[in-house]
Amino acid sequence: MDKAHITMIGTYPVFMTYTGGVNGDSPQLPNHINALLKMGANIDEFYLDGSYDSFKNHADIWCKPNAKPMISLPKDAVINEDGKLKRIEHWTNKMWKLRSSKHMKIEDKLRFLYENGRREQVGKYLRNQHLKDESFPDSCKLRSECERIHCHIKNTVKFDVRYIMEENRELYTKFSFITYQLLLLVNLQNGIKPANSFENCV
Questions:
Q1: Which of 26, 43, 56, 83 is 20 to 30 Å from 34 by CA-CA measure?
Q2: Helix, strand, or coil (residue 198)
Q3: CA 112, CA 91: separation in Å to the nearest integer?
């Protein structure tokens, strides 16, 4: 089994990394965040399934591309004590020698802590906010949206590598991904809407 980790902006795939099937998903996130930063992408929210649920990922998404980490959470997730506001304020005050202040806005406190070795604590706070927010989409809704888009890509250009020689699988997968991007580009240039509708091409 092999994996294609794809980042979308809206319904458009903009970046992909390839790994073996036993590799974890979460270690791939820094590559995708860096790709978005290089593109100068302006995003408000970053949707991910539960395999990316970690404190560090929550913090990195919020602090680097300045996006809200919309990561599916397990049903048994609980509030983390170290991520409560009083603990954020405690560490901000404790690090006053680094020019922090109790009068800073919460966003500035989080960024200060992130930049001064408290990355996981920032992630705990952000994750806590989602757990307390009743309007935060549940895991099934977040995951189904990701799966719907990925299924469309897989149905348009085949990612099946079962009969491809092992040493050629990564190249085959990347070619498939680029083919999908080229189909999108043709539709965008010709004003075809929706751009990811390829009934006349496949």
A1: 83
A2: coil
A3: 10
Please state the φ and ψ torsions of residue 98, each to the nearest 5 degrees: -95, 20
149 pLDDT more than 80: no
Q: How far is CA 147 from CA 30, 31, 90, 143, 185, in A?
A: 21, 21, 41, 6, 22
The letter for the amino acid at 193 is K
| pLDDT value for 75 | 87
User: Judging by DSSP bridges, how do beta strands 45-48 and 68-71 pair with one another?
Assistant: parallel
* CA–CA distance, 42 with 93 (Å, rounded to integer): 32
Cα separation, 148 vs 157, in Å, equals 15
- What residue ranges do the domains of the chain occupy? 43-139
Token pair belonging to 174: 């990347």
Q: CA end-to-end span of the chain, whole Å?
A: 26
**pLDDT per position as a tens digit, 71-97:** 999 889 999 999 999 999 999 999 999
CA dihedral 53, 55, 56, 62 (to 10 degrees): 90
Contact 47, 146 (CB under 8 A): yes
Residues 13-24, buried b or exposed e (16+ Cβ, 10 A)? bebbbbeeeeee
Q: At what angle do helices 119-132 and 55-63 cross, to 10 degrees?
A: 90
CA 121, CA 56: separation in Å to the nearest integer? 8
* Whether the Cβ atoms of residue 59 and residue 126 lie closer than 8 Å to each other: yes
The answer to whether 89 and 109 are in contact (CB under 8 A) is yes
